[in-house]
C-alpha cells in the first residue's frame, strides 16, 4: 500500500528495498534537521538527555562516531531483511 505524503509524493514503501527506505529516511531527516530552531523536541527528550548525562558522570556511557553508528545500524537492518 503506498503512503501518501502531503498529497504531493507517493512512495511505494512495500516495493522499496530496505536500503532505499533507509536512504529515504536519511534524506527526510537531513531536510527536517536543516533548521533545528523550528523543530520542538518531544517531551521524552529531556528525560533521555538527563539519563545520558547521568551515565556519562558515572563513566557508564558508550559512544560511537556517526560513521560507525551508521554502519552498525545498516548491518542490523540487513540482518532483519
Estimate the global geometry from the Cα principal axes.
extended
Structural class: mainly alpha
- Low-confidence runs of at least 5 consecutive residues: none
| Mean pLDDT across all amino acids | 87
- Cα(first) to Cα(last) distance is 19 Å
Trace the largest sheet across and list its strands.
1-2
Please work out how many helical segments DSSP would assign. 3
- Give the % helix: 40-55%
- Relative strand content: 5-15%
Give the helices and strands as they follow along the chain.
EEHHH
Count of structural domains: 2
Q: How would you characterize the largest beta sheet?
A: 2 strands, antiparallel
Strands, total number: 2
Please compute the radius of gyration using only Cα atoms. 17 Å
Provide a brief overview of the structure:
It contains three helices and two strands, in the order ββααα.
Give a quick set of tags describing it.
two-stranded antiparallel ribbon, extended, single chain, 81 residues, 3 helices, mainly alpha, 2 strands, 7% strand
Q: Could you walk me through the main structural features you see in this protein, from its secondary elements to its overall organization?
A:
The structure is a single chain. With about 80 residues, the protein is mainly α. It has two domains: about 1-35, no CATH class; about 50-80, no CATH class. About 55% of the residues lie in helices and about 5% in strands. The protein is built from three helices and two strands, in the order ββααα. The chain has helices at about 20-30, 45-55, 65-80; strands spanning about 5, 10. The protein has a two-stranded antiparallel ribbon. The two termini are about 20 Å apart.
